[in-house]
Carboxypeptidase regulatory-like domain-containing protein (Gimesia chilikensis), 136 residues
Amino acid sequence: MLQRFEMPNAFLAVMLLTVVTTLAGCGGAEEGKKKAEVTITITHNGSPVTEGDVRLMMSGKGEGAMGTLNESGQVELQEVVLGNYSVSVTPPEGTPDNPIPKKEYPNIPKQYRSLQESPLKADVKAGANEFTFDLK
């Protein structure tokens, strides 16, 4: 014999309100953070680095941004949260659908490839931010 269980309407209303409130809170803090546009130019001994990815990571805050270098050696990032960032430059990674052939990237020295080891720093402030890093 199968018994039917019915939830009171008040319980369902409370559960629905809890779910809606929780979902509404997701991303709410992110919207309140001040953000800015960032343009980063990467060169190696004065010549643009045209292949690679640039990563920014704010220590201890979990904030970050990433972009791919263009033919001018630049990456433009929108809506970067204001603050101090470590910056790394890595060879392009590709994707499973679009693999990149393995090759050497002597224009991206190893010390710049890790956020922990890279000496590059960027202090993102309100307004437009432009940073130029020459990798040596």
The radius of gyration is 22 Å. Residues 10-14, 16-29 have pLDDT under 50 and may be disordered.
